[in-house]
Amino acid sequence: MSDPRMSTRAAIFMGRQLRNAVVGIGCVALTPLCAFAQTQAPAQPGRPCPRPAAGSIVTPPPSLFSNNGSLSLALNYFTTTDSDGRTLFCLVTADGNAFESPTLHVKPGDALLIAVTNRNPPPPPGSPTEVVSNPSSRCGDSTMTITSLNLHYHGTNTSPACHGDQVIHTIINSGETFNYNLQFPTDEPPGLYWYHPHVHGIAEAAVQGGASGALVVEGIENIQPAVAGLPERILIVRDQTVAGNPTPGGTVPSWDVTLNYVPIAFPAETPAVIQMKPGQKEFWRVANASADTILDIQVVYDGVPQTLQVVGLDGVPTGSQDGTGQGKLVPQTHILIAPAARAEFIVTGPSRAVHNASFITLNIDTGPDGDNDPQRTLATIRPTDYPVPVLPLIPATSGPANPQRFAGLAAATPTAHRTLYFSEVLSDPNNPASPTNFFITVDGATPVLFDANNKPAIITRQGAVEDWTIQNRTGENHEFHQHQIHFLWLEQNGVPVPTSQQQFLDMIQVPFWSGTGPYPSVTVRMDFRGMDIGDFVYHCHILGHEDNGMMAIIRVLPPS
Ligand SMILES: [Cu+2]
Fold first, then answer.
1. What is the spatial distance between Cα 410 and Cα 525, in angstroms, rounded to a whole number?
2. How far apart are the CA of 472 and the centre of ligand 1, in A?
3. Are 339 and 288 in contact (CB under 8 A)?
4. What's the angle, vertex CA 538, arms to CA 233 and CA 533, rounded to 5?
5. What is the Å distance from ligand 1's center to 203 Cα?
6. Is pLDDT at 247 greater than 90 in this prediction?
7. Distance from the CA of 444 to the center of ligand 1, in angstroms?
8. What is the mean pLDDT of residues 331-349?
9. Maximum Cα–Cα distance for the chain, whole Å?
10. Quick check: 434 and 260 in contact, CB under 8 A?
11. N or C: more exposed end of the chain, with fewer CB within 10 A?
12. Predicted confidence band at 34 (pLDDT cuts at 50, 70, 90)?
């Protein structure tokens, strides 16, 4: 599109059309998505995107494993509506068993090959479109519509080139098939990652529709031997709109949550059920696959928060990057999990003497302009001699740890320092009810809404190590995500993080600003020493913010 302002408006328009259609009270007639949702039959025979009933036992997602260095699969992308009028989206294996949202297990060094077919119906005539690439940047289709798709492999240190983990220009439109070919580096940290659609403007709707799954890089038992032999429980929290669209506040959440698709729906908020053998240690791998909801998880037995032995955050084993190849357990009684972040930890099942055992998320103070993320019980934990389902076991330690991607980063000399900040303004300063524009900006530059055709906001070179201070100049929390690489958490509000608490992350929350005093900030060390060159993005992972502009492009050039 020749006029970048038009392009931006189209993207914002698309995001808001979708958001309005999904969040609004039922489906508002004549909005594009409603027309799309109501008039189009599912492409899959039967009912795609099935969901379990409230109060169901939590079952693990189906798993697919790599073999001889690669994992190859085909996924179909479907949509439907549920009984409350929500638009659902799902990724389902195309061959054989029609597994929804399979967990993809790969080893460091493996290839992941996915043929993705968008089986959404075409967009209704007259719905918005946007050209997101030119002939040189094109990757798949060139025109985004309200039914477009692409996939992001969150947290993976894989290439941002086309057919890799490329989200700026990759577009898969209705009826089209696109082939992903991701090569995992041999030094990819073992742990929990995830995949989800990432088309700017409609990412929130796709993720709240449920189109996401876990991705496990195998081998954590070689860095954290404490998990060897333990039952492995993959838990995926997603969010979705609240039926009836009540005004958030008090106990009314901005979004309902689900646990492995079991709904915890306002107002009943019936917890899901997890069965555990009394006193049995399990290895829990929790992904916050919510579009917008911040979690602060806790396991509580008869009112007492249990000590969780954290072994990994955002796919990186805790304490594992000091050159020893071994991790360290970090005891915590609750774990903040930003949208898109992951936490992996050991939890011990309740004894028979425990009357009330639960897996909860605590209330989040998101700031005066933030969502309402109140405390909720995600699951009741029931001690059972023969729990169902029977969980798979983490293998025994099999050898030395693979080389670690971020080793030595703490001691590296930064080659640049930058300050970035989150900001928000009303799109019409004279109308308090007008939509908000969201920005992430390098200090000193002019704030611009994200557009796939924007120039890079930051240009650096492979080999660089940069310290970034990221400020929040708004009245709500934002959740910083850097694609392609992890970063080392160095400072909070200018105060150094103790070495024992430093961690490699791909998500970090920047708390809201009270309106007076210094802006809250985090300082992180970015590691561009790896293989990945090209253009990729950083953004707020509250996807409602990202869809409305809070994303920018970084370009990593080859070494000079
Ligand atoms: Cu945000």
1. 8
2. 9
3. yes
4. 95
5. 13
6. yes
7. 20
8. 98
9. 68
10. no
11. C
12. very low
CA dihedral sign of residues 110, 483, 79, 179: negative
Residue 53 CA to ligand 1 centre (angstroms): 31
pLDDT tier for residue 322 given thresholds of 50, 70 and 90: confident
Nearest to 170 by CA among 160, 184, 158, 183: 160
User: pLDDT tens-digit profile of 472-520?
Assistant: 999 999 999 999 999 999 999 999 999 888 899 999 999 999 999 999 9
Measure 477 CA to ligand 1 centroid, in angstroms: 6
Query: Residue 309's pLDDT band (boundaries 50, 70, 90)?
Result: very high
Rounded to an integer, what distance in angstroms lies between the CA atom of residue 251 and that of residue 266? 9
pLDDT of residue 46: 62
* Tokens read off for 245: 């669209």
Q: Is 20 helix (H, G, I), strand (E, B) or coil?
A: helix
End-to-end Cα distance, the chain = 32
Amino acid at the residue 158: T
What is the Å distance from ligand 1's center to 287 Cα? 18
DSSP string over 1-17: ---HHHHHHHHHHHHHH
Q: How confident is the model at residue 27 (pLDDT cuts 50, 70, 90)?
A: very low
CB atoms within 10 A of CB 415: 14
- What does DSSP assign to residue 478? E
Answer for the pair 254, 361: CB distance below 8 angstroms, yes or no. no
CA-wise closest residue to 193 among 417, 483, 413, 489: 483
Residue 35 reports pLDDT greater than 50: no
Contact (CB, 8 A) for 486 and 525: no
Nearest to residue 385, comparing CAs of 459, 275, 542?
Answer: 275
pLDDT, position 14: 47
Residue 101 in this model has a pLDDT that exceeds 80: yes
> With b meaning 16 or more CB within 10 Å and e meaning fewer, what string describes 252-286?
ebbbbbbbbbbbbbbeebebbbbbbbeeebbbbbb
Buried/exposed 476-496: b ≥16 CB within 10 Å, e otherwise: bbbbbbbbbbbbbbbebeeee
Residue type, 346: I
DSSP code per residue over 138-183:
-EE-SEE-TT-B--EEET-----STTSS--SSEEB-TT-EEEEEEE
CB 482 within 8 A of CB 552: no
Distance 176 CA to ligand 1 centre (A): 32
Q: Is the peptide bond before 267 cis (omega within 30 degrees of 0)?
A: yes
Angstrom distance (rounded) from CA 265 to CA 545: 23
Report the separation in Å between the CA atom of 460 and the middle of ligand 1, taken as the mean of its atom positions.
24
Give residue 181 CA to ligand 1 midpoint distance, Å. 30
